[in-house]
Amino acid sequence: MNLKHVFSNDFTLSKRVLGALMIAAGIAGFVGVLMIEVLDIGRQGGIGPSQRIALGGCVILAIIGATLLPLGKNPA
Amino acid sequence: MTDLAVQTAPPTKTNSLIITISRVLMVVALLILLGYLLVYAAFAVNLMQFPFDYDQGEGFELVDTIMFSEGRLPYQDTNVYPFYSSNYPPLFHVMAAPFVWLFGEAYWYGRLLGFLGTLVAAAAIGVAVYREGGHKWIAVLSGLAFLASNTIYHIGPLFRQHMTMVMFETLAVVVLANVNEIQDTRKRRITLAVGLGLILAAGYTKQLALATAVAVFVFLFIRQPRRAVIWGIVFALVGSGIFLWLNRATNGQWWLQTISANVNDYIPDQTFGLYRLWFSLHGFLIVPAVLYALYELYFARLSLYTIWFAAAVANAALSGKWGAGDSYFATSIAALCILSGICFSRLVRGNWSFAPSFYTRWLIQPFRRIAPVVVAASLIIVPLCYIGYGRAVLHMPTQGAIFEPIATALGLEANADNGFYDSAGRIAGGYANIGHFTTQADIEEGWRIVDLVRQADGDVLSEEAAFNLLAGKTVITNPTQILNLSLNNQFDSTALIDMLERQEFGLVILRALFYPRDVIDAIYENYEQTETIHMNGFDYMILTPIQAE
């Protein structure tokens, strides 16, 4: 799948590609939320409730993405 | 391999009894939801006759509207007299500004705009459900279900921009939902321009519309990345152009007052409470909406409605911000009314199509034979869901010639102010004390406060703008705005506290103590409470300068 094809008039995302993007977004989001904790060194109290909600959301996003992978080339 | 179509034959005489029962139940559901429309209209008319703030902050929306009607931008430096700024985008106030020219300063037209906005959104929901599901009854029920929601009822007829934002969001989604299927290039481009213009309108009505913009572009990207990128660039240029112009015209106050000041404390318990409340009220429609979203995710193509629903439900997590509340769920309620309506329409028509896949083979194929049973059951279950929803969202006055006999027959006792029952109760943090009707006694007490303001020497510091506006005095500051700024270390209270220490205000009127802590301290050091006036369920504390001994 090259970039020229992705930006052609007849390209549409498949369920598999959407699933992969959701997994990537979930992982990136998870790492991002953890990085906030690592970089925000002046703050007390560790990972708070709102960060736990965000982490949970990222995990759910990635899991849903994984369940889309078996759907292959079906259009999303 | 082709899609698995599950379409049942039209009903025969053998199940005519089921059809008759279904129609009776549909009529019952329709009557219940029409009853809520009656309550909603009565509430809207009641509020339009109330000349004061019903919900804290309405008066400041009126101040913004007046400023726009005079050609002034309300994004000002809050560190200098009169310490006032708006914290919302301009479109709603611009829409209301012509009413100032025609009718002067009043609350009714802002409330009318909010109310009409909900009716337009409900109509758009009905159109979407009918277009996608082809069932007139369910389309009508879906639109009415939106208006019957406690949340929509509470905030619809307020002088607030929130429901106008939801109206623009809903219209945008309905316009754009089938844009990719339009073959005619010119027509498709016009549709895209109109839809994205509506998104911009929603965003410049209230910042919360950002989630709908994200949902629209995710949808466009999934269907055709090229189109999403090109139109995304155009959208970003127009949107950021307006943003930069506003920021330049206000010397940066636009950014400070509408963006920086909105970074508030987050209260997770408030979020959880409001999600629980949202589900307990709308569960009869949320479950089918989620099931339909899962159907699209695994067996069909994702529609804009599903992506919008997911984005709106996620965005509602912002309801935990200080100052936020159940209104943050309004967009998700519009989306769930559409999705549940489409789901119900397909269920009763037995009209489903499943793309060939691993999941279809294992989860759908084995149950294909029971499709007629599912359709027959749906004919009963669908109207029962709307009836159940009608019970869950129960809210109505318990007084008055029309409502009292009904409330008595239902065994309802008032659980809110001025004889009102509300199933939403007061169970979640951030839940505003609104929904009840106002009374003549409330209006009379409000005018008493206005008289005190008129009699006071000089300026009056009031937590609500109505009293100053009606007394013809300058509105001094917006307490929640300077509190937000103060919490973000962006408010210098020196000048305001100097005025308090010099007792330059002839009167101070407090209700919820929304001012920053140091301002409240300065008030109580220099003013004493001389009277309390009860109005609309709240105690208004009247403070006069402490006399030197």
Structure in words:
- The complex is a heterodimer of chains A (76) and B (549).
- Chain A has 76 residues and is an all-alpha fold.
- In chain A, 64% of the residues lie in helices and 0% in strands.
- Chain A is built from 3 helices and no strands.
- Chain A has helices at residues 3-6, 15-39, 49-68.
- In chain A, helix 2 packs antiparallel against helix 3 (49-68).
- In chain B, a hairpin with a 2-residue loop joins strand 7 (527-535) and strand 8.
- Chain B has helices at 16-48, 58-69, 91-103, 108-133, 136-148, 150-155, 162-176, 185-203, 210-223, 225-249, 253-258, 268-299, 304-315, 330-349, 358-364, 371-392, 403-410, 440-455, 466-471, 479-487, 494-501, 517-526, and strands at residues 4-7, 351-354, 395-397, 420-422, 459-462, 505-510, 527-535, 538-545.
- Chain B is α+β, with helices and mostly antiparallel strands and 549 residues long.
- In chain B, strands 5-6-8-7 form a 4-stranded mixed sheet. A two-stranded antiparallel ribbon of chain B has the order 1-2.
- Classes of the chains: A mainly alpha (76), B alpha+beta (549).
- Chain A binds chain B through residues 6-9, 11-13, 18, 48-50, 53, 57, 64, 67-68, 70-72, 74-76, and chain B through 221-226, 229, 266, 268, 271, 297-298, 301-302, 314, 317, 320, 355-359.
